[in-house]
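Worked example 2:
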Amino acid sequence: MRDTTITDEVEALEGLDLHGLRAVWRERYGAPPKLRSVELLGLMLAWRLQVEAAGGLSPEARRAIRRPVGEKASPTAAAGARLVREWGGVRHEATAIADGGFLYSGERFASLSQIARRITGVRWNGPRFFGLRTGKLG
């Protein structure tokens, strides 16, 4: 299904010159960017209009965009996943839950790092401790 209102607004931008695009921007969002490219300003304006109509990027997508090139997202465990690690001769198990937290020893933890600290008594990178990241484990 097509949202004619937003589609019409975006299509109307196609015939505008730089001054026209800046006028639309100024009317809706305040001072326009100091761009001289009709194409780029038109694309930016069309994107802003569509975000207003349909919503913006998810928090996960925003984090991915801000992440430096080549850097991978932090490993995560799907809800229900059991992460097992032996430490000090004792088997430790954490279970991922739907809200992004973890259950360990009957308690809820916000991160694997909190659990690793509880187990070892010192600060650890939780995903690394549980083997979700590469690196030598202690």
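The first strand starts at residue 82 and ends at 87. Helices lie at 4-13, 18-29, 38-54, 59-66, 112-120, 126-129.
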